[in-house]
Design brief:
There is one protein chain. Helix content is about 40%, strand content about 20%. The chain has 10 helices and 13 strands. Strand 5, helix 6 and strand 6 (about 145-150) form a beta-alpha-beta unit. By secondary structure, it is α/β, with parallel strands linked by helices. The chain has a 7-stranded parallel beta sheet with strand order 3-2-1-4-5-6-11, sandwiched between helices. A two-stranded parallel ribbon has the order 7-10. The chain has a two-stranded parallel sheet with strand order 8-13.
């Protein structure tokens, strides 16, 4: 069985992938710049506490070689610039060093990289733009890779956008029709982990280049998802207020 190194195992997606694969008895090392006590207890001796995105090439190579990984799963990322870490540092800046290290290794290592859906030119935030640059660098590298581009990620723990949608579902408000009807693409975090497991089972050590959008196969609207969340929560409100338009500007 191939060995996996999950980078960013302290985050929502990285933690779930690492924990899920461990539960399936895959050989996994979980690395992160910070672990909660619960995460440290969960991963135990498999945990590697290190400032991943800040590592220079030498330290990054030491981490990868020391793990003995055949597959590196990169879940490192930040949603916005913050003190001590920018989106560039966490995304394309880090990927540049990671590519350098993987190229220098004496054996092929598959890079599984978590990204975002969309196309070049449609990115309006520093987060999205830096993610897109990182994708392009991986594709141009010629290294064995699989870029996974999930939609809105649903996980057991609410986080980011999914936490906001759960909050909207819990409130007695009605979305404006133009917003309610917008297409909405989502994916369960379990499906991301299943994809990584499939790659671990099938990659034969040779060339591999893939970019996959991971989303529910059926089209949904935002209102459909909100309605499903309300049913899940018990839908206790007999009435709803219409959300003012100015709040959406």
């Amino acid at each position: 069985m191939r060995k996996l190194l999950v980078l960013g195992a302290g985050g929502l997606i990285g933690q779930f992938i690492a924990a899920d694969l461990i539960s399936r008895r895959y050989d996994v090392i979980a690395a992160a710049r910070r672990f909660s006590q619960a995460q440290a207890d969960l991963f135990g001796e498999r945990a590697r506490l290190t400032p991943i995105a800040s590592l220079d090439s030498s330290a990054l190579r030491e981490l990868i070689e020391g793990s003995g990984a055949d597959i590196v799963v990169n879940c490192v990322g930040v949603l916005q610039d913050q003190p001590g870490m920018s989106t560039h540092d966490a995304h394309d800046g880090f990927i540049e060093r990671l590519i350098e290290v993987l190229r220098a290794l004496p054996r092929p290592v598959l890079l599984v990289h978590t990204s975002i859906p969309g196309e070049v030119g449609g990115d309006k935030t520093a987060f999205a733009q830096s993610k897109r640059r990182a994708d392009a660098m991986i594709i141009d590298s010629g290294l064995p890779h699989a870029i996974l581009r999930p939609g809105m990620v649903w996980a057991p723990a609410p986080y980011g956008g999914s936490a906001m949608l759960r909050s909207i579902a819990a409130l007695p408000v009605e979305l404006p029709s133009d917003l309610a009807g917008r297409p909405f693409q989502y994916i369960a975090v379990e499906d991301i982990s299943d994809t990584v497991a499939k790659l671990a089972d099938t990659w034969n050590g040779g060339p591999h280049q893939a970019v996959w959008d991971l989303m529910h196969p059926q089209p949904h609207s935002l209102q459909t998802v909100i309605a499903a969340l309300r049913r899940w929560l018990g839908d206790i409100w007999p009435w709803r207020l219409k959300m003012p338009e100015f709040l959406l500007d």
